[in-house]
User: Fold these one by one.
Assistant:
Number 1:
Amino acid sequence: MEPPAAPRRVTIVDVARHANVSTTAVSKVLRNAYGASPEMRAKVRRAIDELGYRPLAAARGLRGQTYTIGVMLPDIRNPFFPEILDGVTGCLEGTDYQVLLGPGGNGEKEEVRVTDAMIDRGMDGLVLVAPVSPRDRLEHVASAVPTVVVGRHGHSPVYDTVADDDRAGAALVVRHLAELGHRRIAHIEHHETDPTRATEMPNAQRADGYRRAMRDLGLDGEIDVVSTSYTQQGGYEGAKQLLARPHRPTAVFAGADIVAMGVLEAVAEAGLSVPGDLSVAGYDNTTFAALGQISLTSVDQAGQEIGRNAARLLLERIADRGRRSVQVRLSPTLVARRTTDRPPA
Amino acid sequence: MEPPAAPRRVTIVDVARHANVSTTAVSKVLRNAYGASPEMRAKVRRAIDELGYRPLAAARGLRGQTYTIGVMLPDIRNPFFPEILDGVTGCLEGTDYQVLLGPGGNGEKEEVRVTDAMIDRGMDGLVLVAPVSPRDRLEHVASAVPTVVVGRHGHSPVYDTVADDDRAGAALVVRHLAELGHRRIAHIEHHETDPTRATEMPNAQRADGYRRAMRDLGLDGEIDVVSTSYTQQGGYEGAKQLLARPHRPTAVFAGADIVAMGVLEAVAEAGLSVPGDLSVAGYDNTTFAALGQISLTSVDQAGQEIGRNAARLLLERIADRGRRSVQVRLSPTLVARRTTDRPPA
DNA sequence: GTGAAAGCGCTAACAT
DNA sequence: ATGTTAGCGCTTTCAC
């Protein structure tokens, strides 16, 4: 009546014995490495199947690879990130790599913890999605393990980047609203104090894109930015401020869909209608935006495309750690829905 | 001009040499194990800090633990799961364990792949969230590594379970609607063919809870179940069917919030109003439900509580693999919002 | 093409 | 309380 201890795992030695070959031979078959005859391969594969052998990734990692790709997501709740993840896993399908996710937590401390953990676990490559850590830290990580940084602008020789052109996305929104006839187009941005991040983060690029687009349209005088945060609460508060303006805007470009949700709430509370009294646009084209009840005009980032590119670059870098760093920039598209229309007469 | 190969990692040997002690001593300090004097500990810790040493989890795992807990999520997109995750990570905070997520993919094949991958990576324990795999498979996994199954009914001697009482949750909705005066209360369920899952999955329990509650209220004759799927599309189609009934229901209990979203869309399309013409309730109290624009009556599962319990049970089982299996059942609560009201006169 | 043997970084027995 | 030594399961020389 002993406690049901875990039964001993089948090891490479068992397989070798069962197939009457050396462990080296088995290892070669596992890795599709050079130096094993077809007959040998067949024999070994049969033994593997018969014994139900699975190589222990941890042990492999001690000498070679762990066949594990780590993806750090800063916030599981953001409905945009699953798209990226789908792209990554899709690209890795058919390879021997397995994707594991590290829950980031939107803070530098949490990011350090999770990236260190991934390095300590011998992961072969990392995809960092919209990291908030300073550049040095990212480079530190990238020097320990092949890394692709996603959704953050600013280059580095040690890691590759994939990002949407957030400035262009913001311009799409502004032009769309201007074409509808709006002039007083306000923007709600995410407040950023850190100097590096103030240029590298998507939110900063969106705000910048908004300003540039306004200027390009000759609307310099109408530029109106409220600085809160990329949260529903931030959108609510930002909208409150904008609605209290003596001469209030006819359109609001919220820096993220979740912000737009807060705006919609504040507008409803003020007894105003969308888009009758105010047009509202978001960013990210999240699930919310597509809901029939919401039908929010938004900017679609090619999430899957981003993920696919990230995975591809990562595999390339794993294969050649010394290669020059690559920057991929993708173009977002506008998805016009029912929250934007012509301004009130 | 050689390619910048990864600099050699600091190992336990380096630390031992630097501190003038044995590797055993360092190992003991790392694991807070018995047999190291305070002075020794101090010395070793200093060396660790000075060298920036971090133990390699893969190597530790080869003999002992990897200090990694794997959480399998079937669907990253489901906004309910982050709650569970928060509970798990919260409970593990302060311990040496790191949580890594395995993207499930809502299919048996994907689940096998990701659970195998987690086992192969030497994880110390697994939390499986709402797995769809058959019981045998779950027991197979659990026999390889300590496992807690979350959000699935049905016990097993080899794994612990944590779940909300979905029957009770469904009853909460039915009683709420009945108290408002509804009698013709319909339900949209997720179609399930597999016999094991037909009893063990939450959706099945919700449908069952609906039927029981209707009977308990003497509404046997009004029981009306449409069988589609737990998707927005499923809700849309289900609602279409219900609205086409000669004597249509006055209230719809959708088995999940996302289903309710589809219902709302179909209702709006039919030119009807909620809750004026039809009351709608969901399940899961997701982010959607709470949005001011939606304000959906829903059932709140204590997600964080579920996660905390799962983590606690897992730690207990890691400490004692032989202990009897435990089942924790938590109680959901109703969150009444604006989509439910008295039936039309 | 094949296999023996060394060793990856750590922990666990076993001395001392 | 401390150190020595033998592995854990795999990959990688390097013989043959």
Note: Chain A touches chain B through 56 residues (CB under 8 Å).
Number 2:
Amino acid sequence: MDANSASNGNHDADWNTDDELEVCNESFSHWGSTSSGQEANGGFGEASSPTNSTKLIHDFVGMGFSKTMVVKAIEENGEDDSEEILETLLTYAENSNHILEKDTMLSSLVDMGYLVEEALTAMNNCGSEAQLSELTDYICAAQMVKDFDAQLRESPDEDDSTSVMTSYSYTMPRNDYLPREKKRKLHKFQQFGRKWHKGSEKKHWDEDGDIMHLPNPMIGFGIPDDPWPIVERKLPEVAIGPPYFYYENVALTPKGVWSKISRFLYDIEPEFVDSKHFSAAARKRGYVHNLPIQNRFPLLPIPPRTIQEALPLTSKWWPLWDKRRKLNCLQTAIGTAKLTERIRNALENNMKYGDEPPPHVQKFVLEQCRKWNLVWVGKNKVAPLEPDEIEMLLGFPRDHTRGGGISRTDRYKALGNSFQVDTVAYHLSVLKNQFPNGINLLSLFSGIGGAEVALHRLGIPLKNVVSVEIAEVNRNIIRSWWEQTNQRGQLIEIADVQQVSIERLDQWISSFGGFDLVIGGSPCNNLAGSNRVSRNGLEGKHSSLFYHYVRILDLVKTMMGRDR
DNA sequence: AATAGAATGACTATTAGG
DNA sequence: CCTAATAGTCATTCTATT
């Protein structure tokens, strides 16, 4: 049984009670309700005028459908309405694809000796694109958790009060992560100084062996409706709030970066989550926080979790041999028009009569589609996502980044650097019961306000928000969102984290009575894999601003009376 | 025409896992 | 060895405004 689902029911009722929330709800209502029947004039007219069946067959086969399916569809619908035929063909394709894939996977698992129930749960949670090995790992790990749990109940453990660092009861066995002694304060700034003196030898500080490994599947301390029981984790004493804090960055960093981040954030083990479990696009991120991890609940409505559900119009053009159901990570740069043309040419020059393109062409096209997150928008035509589609995939209201004089390029950049709202909101949902009257928020590196949007969509009132964001266009986006959602609290905008001084913090804290949450994701420029120029790690020009997050969090903790 | 801002397209290495 | 993924940077070109 899953310990989670019991807690999912009690919060959704709150969703529509507030006026402001309804505005928000409206902007999401296009999901799932979009009908795909009204367009299809563009580029399709030629097929319907001389209606003889050979031409029809030729046209549809040219679109990538098999001849037998086309003939069958024409028999069913007659040859007058090409719209109807196309719909039928798409239904065939969808069904046969899904059923085939699902069925073979399920029977393989059952053949291997797993229970049908176990197999289905695993398939449900790992997504329809999951490999067999991923599914078996999932089932195996779930079994281990069960056993471990049973063992715990048999022999209640004795407390090891000798160590300040209490152990983490995470659901996966980990021998790779060894929390350090708590000599932090002095030690970490000594280390900080040492890094700057490194000269010729590049990776010296990675050599001490504490490399953090990423979990597989990447579901952190749990995702909605997953069967893994959540065990209470024990935080180091110094890490416990107030304030709560929540730090985020890319999961795939150079070696040693996450160990260091964790070391600076009170040795808390990062929670690595891939947002593909919350949305139709992947987003592998690490989160370090001191929030409770029990009784989380997801944002409603549940967003579409496949490309086909999120972007229904692309299904018309999606070839059978493109098996993608999830998008890759949404980045700041998009594919070029030249690439679209290259792909179109490759397909058209190799499209034999009534057949799929040859394997080497398929391979090339699929590689490029994955690399640049391209979707099918016409016959043999792929294109990058539109900004509003990215907004939707990330959980923002439609047109969140639109207007205010922001360029298309800057929208892509801002969105590519943002939170996935559903994922973050799931982690923050535990605050709702604790703060019925709202929270005071310190939001560092706010970007386009992912944290604010997540809290608002959770129905957690925002009392005082100090938002620190360097880009003016992003501050404009947050301010206009603040006004449009009729926030009653106060929004204080600061441009630079380096200007967040002790004096200012003291002033805010004494005037608000403290911050309830310090949230932020520091720049990943120098950590991200796509960076070919300056992937310098945590000490890079931008990414080293991480240390300001640590500085400010430490100050807030100290001023609020803990950790002295 | 001069200018600034926006758009374009070419540019790998480091991870992890099999 | 292989496949696969990856919140990006930069010089150049285009375009809108003056």
Note: The two ends of chain A are 43 Å apart (CA to CA).
Number 3:
Amino acid sequence: MASSRVRLSDVAREAGVSPTTVSFVLNGRCDSIAPETQQRVLAVAARLHYRPHLAARALATGRTRRIGLILNQPESFSTNDTYFSEVLAGIIRRATEHDRNVLLLSAHYPDWRSLFTDITGGAVDGVLQISKFVLDELTPALIQADFPIVCVSFKHEDDHCLTVDCDNEQGGYLAARHLMDLGHQRLAVLYPGEEISWGRERMAGIQRAAEEAGVPSEWICALAWNEAQMPNKAWVLDAVAWVQRLAPRPTAIICCDEVRARMLAEMLPSVGLTVPADISIVSFNSTETSARCVPPLTSVRQPLCDIGRAAVDLLLDRIQGRTPENPVLLFPMALDVRQSTQAPRGEVAPGTLRSAPISRTRTRL
Amino acid sequence: MASSRVRLSDVAREAGVSPTTVSFVLNGRCDSIAPETQQRVLAVAARLHYRPHLAARALATGRTRRIGLILNQPESFSTNDTYFSEVLAGIIRRATEHDRNVLLLSAHYPDWRSLFTDITGGAVDGVLQISKFVLDELTPALIQADFPIVCVSFKHEDDHCLTVDCDNEQGGYLAARHLMDLGHQRLAVLYPGEEISWGRERMAGIQRAAEEAGVPSEWICALAWNEAQMPNKAWVLDAVAWVQRLAPRPTAIICCDEVRARMLAEMLPSVGLTVPADISIVSFNSTETSARCVPPLTSVRQPLCDIGRAAVDLLLDRIQGRTPENPVLLFPMALDVRQSTQAPRGEVAPGTLRSAPISRTRTRL
DNA sequence: CTGTTAGCGCCTTCAC
DNA sequence: GTGAAGGCGCTAACAG
């Protein structure tokens, strides 16, 4: 049974029409085809269990109806960092709605060139890249080759590049502003450094809040991690030691990564610092990871699922040649206040700092 | 620039050889080609930035070098159930090692037929299916079409079907045995019912442990959830109420799902039951989800990443026509004892039950 | 050891 | 409204 594949021509012959007609009917180009003929073709196709051969179609049309998702590392999934998973869920759902499939492209390719070769060799019509890539050569190469690409949650140097991201500057501002409203003035910031766009931007927001509150910028101390590494306990331990060494000790920590924030919350008590009594913590992303910490972490939320969906939309537009008026799409962030933040003890009471109400409208630079 | 794609024939012409030669060189069939010619071809290909067109190759060879992963629901990722993510990480890594890509196939297709059409229409060379499918028609259809498929973490009716799974019966046994060794005799079991293979099997293991310990099977009470639904609080609340109504009340709960187990641990205190003082909990999977509960959950672990890897290996073998001697690959489970289990108060002391040491070698039926 | 040739299955611009 | 014909880029027999 099922000896050889049923082809378009088989359907045509069986229905007594030409291949063209069948192709037209099956691809919706049926404006110019007798309704009766359409019915017949459809019926025959169904009866024969005709299934178009995707590779043949792709060869003929130059389109695969597939989009690629570049993974910096397979562990992206297993860090218990649901950030990635939630964005992915949005991507998959939207892609499916558009009748597109998602091809996972692992950066664990032997080298970036072979990945580049596959991508531009017709594996997919376009790619989504989440997070700054470990293989720094790939992105510029794709952009230069004019291959459709959308950067998700990070900004490429080239402003021209399609991007979906959050307003990280605002996020940083929200976090710092919340703390300063509570009376905190000396802050420790844990972040991926200035190389990573969201690290840089969040820090900028934090500094804007400090300025606004009249807090000297030297009171904001920052420690950077290596974003190429997965979160690990050793680094967080070092960070804790670093915080302890600071004099005067900061009364609050802003940690730009959820997994590390949780580790932090777990480790601080063991060095005698109770959260939030002795030290407050603000985290980012606000997925369940934050909510389920002990104590539940105050966290800056971003609409992860929407980001995934928007990225797909943008990419498909680009693939179809439509250039959006604005290449960079920014989503707003919001603060989820939980139990990891409170006023510092014996510090300046809230309200004495010079600052405008947090709900004030702000302008993006 | 980059006007039109560089083709194989371009390389051939430029190198002064035939397309065949180029094809051979580029595909490793170079046993029969002068080393010098090879060098020349390779050099030209590199100079011209030649990149083979994947669709064309797929059309000619009938192979895509892609494997599909059928997702029952995009939410698979975002339930904070790292189970799926960890298996996926294994899959991706192994696939990449074999120079294969993973195509995500969402069950959110309009209907299972269109998914079937894509799959058998040459989108992928074979598929991995994790968890029993919501669309029950797809799997049998693929199997009947003799399309390469590997079932991961569930068993299809057809024993013939390639499967990678854990020894769930053993897992159930380990969980129950641990509790009974502690002195528990009345157990509540939360599971997906007998329809789901791992539910059925774990329950069988639990009952074997009960038998072995001389515990009457009526003392093991089970409540089934609907596996087609994502874990939700309402169900867990009902489950808690159900446990409370049982008389005599069980002293321990075995919950076959990690997310629900965590919810359980969170809700029980609110009805006056302390874990583990009043009631013990054993969970499954033992990912970070279990470890980070309050209290950390005793849990039955399975080698999730290895399962993913093994599934890929099995599928690729099948695709290449190699039929493994044993279609079903079972991984052993192990028990991670944490803080959610302890001896019941005022119950029979450990040791009085008739049972062999847990380390005893056991035979699979 | 290398070149010639004939598809792989579908799409699509043209005439009819 | 429908059919004929060429081509998408690569592979793999089969000669030579």
Note: The domain at 8-61 of chain A is CATH 1.10.260.40 (434 Repressor (Amino-terminal Domain)).
